[in-house]
Task: inverse folding
């Protein structure tokens, strides 16, 4: 087990070194952009640049820029002018997170469909035909794409010990939702702003993990990132990293990252965990 940790740390350090490269930047002026204060940029499969701002969603094709704004009298428009991010799971359109909820922009009709999420999404996790969407204060909902339907809504219920640990998520969290199929498992790992959850999608049962003074607990209840490696789940928090064994739920804190804010954990994408 110790060798496995050192191997992972080797990957982290070496990845950090190789991730440093010479980057060239070109300044591009977007005509008639809704505002210069942008939140995110996403390039879809058709090459369109989707630019999220507080004053509308922009779609730039390299020459022309189109601004999409909300109309309270037209539910086929974007749900809110404050667009946060755009992502894509198929070639038919893009999903848009706004301060009001989740929308889907259809390429064919050039219209938005509003998905009743009741709260602003903070991130997303895509698995096969399902979207797992954590929200700011209405828990996590599971959306079946082909059926265009929300099939479940996971929230904290103080009367139900099997409910998830919190209904609150944050935009500052990274990859805080993870599906685990290890050893025939069908578990959804859910990192909230107040605790970690191991939720069984087949049975609806849930195990909560909270931080306490003991060493065999997670370092903090604020979960930034979740990463799977073999039989271990790595948990990045604002006070360090811990591992959870998928077999027996045993927890080990990594001393190297003690009391450090750690995000993200996936060194295959980012080179190394970012610590503060």
Result:
């Amino acid at each position: 087990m110790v060798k496995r940790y050192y191997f992972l740390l080797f990957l982290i350090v070496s990845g950090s070194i190789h991730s440093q490269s010479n980057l060239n930047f070109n300044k591009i002026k977007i005509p008639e952009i809704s505002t210069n204060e942008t939140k995110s940029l996403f390039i879809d499969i058709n090459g369109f640049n989707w630019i999220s701002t507080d004053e509308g969603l922009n779609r730039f094709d390299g020459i022309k820029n189109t601004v999409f704004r909300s109309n309270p009298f037209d539910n086929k428009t974007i749900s809110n002018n404050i667009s946060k991010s755009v992502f894509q799971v198929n070639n038919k359109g893009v999903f848009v997170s706004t301060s009001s909820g989740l929308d889907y922009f259809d390429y064919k009709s050039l219209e938005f469909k509003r998905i009743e999420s009741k709260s602003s999404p903070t991130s997303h996790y895509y698995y096969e035909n399902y979207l797992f969407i954590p929200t700011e204060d209405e828990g996590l909902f599971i959306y079946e794409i082909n059926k265009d339907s929300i099939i479940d809504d996971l929230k904290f219920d103080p009367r139900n010990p099997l409910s998830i640990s919190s209904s609150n998520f944050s935009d500052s969290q990274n990859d805080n939702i993870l599906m685990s199929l290890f050893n025939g498992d069908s578990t959804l790992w859910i990192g909230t702003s107040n605790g970690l959850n191991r939720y069984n999608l087949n049975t609806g049962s849930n195990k909560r993990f909270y931080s306490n003074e003991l060493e065999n607990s997670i370092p903090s209840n604020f979960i930034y990132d979740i990463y799977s490696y073999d039989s271990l789940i790595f948990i990045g928090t604002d006070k360090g990293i811990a591992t959870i064994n998928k077999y027996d739920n045993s927890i080990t804190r990594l001393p190297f990252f003690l009391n450090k804010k750690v995000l993200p954990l996936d060194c295959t994408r980012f080179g190394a965990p970012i610590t503060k």
Observations:
- The longest helix spans residues 2-18.
- Helices lie at 2-18, 267-270.
